[in-house]
Amino acid sequence: MSESSKAVHDTEYVGIGHYTNQFFRRASRNGLEFTLMVVGQSGLGKSTFIDSLFQTDLISSSAKYIPSAEKIRERKFNIFEDNTKLQLTIVDTPAFGDMINNCYCWRPIVDYIDKMNSNYLKDESDINRKTKIPDNRVHLCLYFISPNGHGMKELDIKFLSKLHDKVNVIPVIAKADTLTTIELERLKSAILFELDVNDINVYHFPSYADKGSYQTKSNNPIPYAVICSNLTVTKEGGKKIRAREYPWGVVEIENLTHNDFQLLKDDILKKHLIDLIEDTANVHYENYRFTQLGKLLTNHTEVPNDIMTHVQRELDRHEEKFKSKTASMERIFNDKVREREQLLELKKGKVEEFELKYELILAEKMKFLQNLSLEVNKMRLAYNLRGEGLSDKSSMG
């Protein structure tokens, strides 16, 4: 059968043109869940970056703090803008790379990412599956690189090599205002070279996916060089901006001629937030899911023959659980019925006792009435006899 394409005329309205409106209404109704992880050594301005990214003091606010796995901190926020809700989770890694021995400092982060994927897989595989599964998977990891040096450290390469196939990871050069333009370009080139040599696949936003178009700064943003600040400066005209003040001038963090902060912010929040969520679900999570199901199939202690045997065991287990609950409910019901029957029997005995008591009283009353009636009859008979005697005497006289 041959396939053909046909343009739909204005009069042949189908309705797929409202797809974007449907997606917008769904996002407005359900909101979006997004988890952002920031990793890097202390003093690189990760907290300031988050505050600058969302234009508020999120980290220093009184938002809910949730302790989780060791060396991992979670902070959850609800952000509302133009009738759209974003449930944001910020995952911080305090003291990362600050130990004397940093050989395995990446392990808690990998374990955390795997744990979030495992929780989602468990909810997804549950028989009583929820309509909307909470998504706590890590959608983006920003790795902050120190500007002091001629490239990445061994720790940076080790971390990125362990995480690049588990999460969308983007390298970020912190405190870019400490470098001259030439130094920054050299550092970027060195980082790109080391990423290529070590086969580290960092995340490329769809708009930059064509590597052949990496010609200018706007087309070659990775690694992003950012400057962050919590200081607000008032420009001429009264406009307030976040900036860093120096004796020789002011560095505007949202000025593309000064750094890549605004470019990174737009790429994450304005242009590709949905792409990050979908790439996490369709690439990294699916890879994790495939690996776990493969382990399940090869683990003969859990699945002796095939996946159907495992499914049958799960069904049998749930059936036994259902039978146990049914028997328990029947036992409770029978106990309640027995208690009610005993209560009714007790009440019935009291009623019968009451009836017997009043039957005896009634019998005594009836006997009393009968005796009283006999007495009345005797008195009436005696009265009548006395009356007849008096009448006889009077007739004789």
TrEMBL record:
This is Septin.
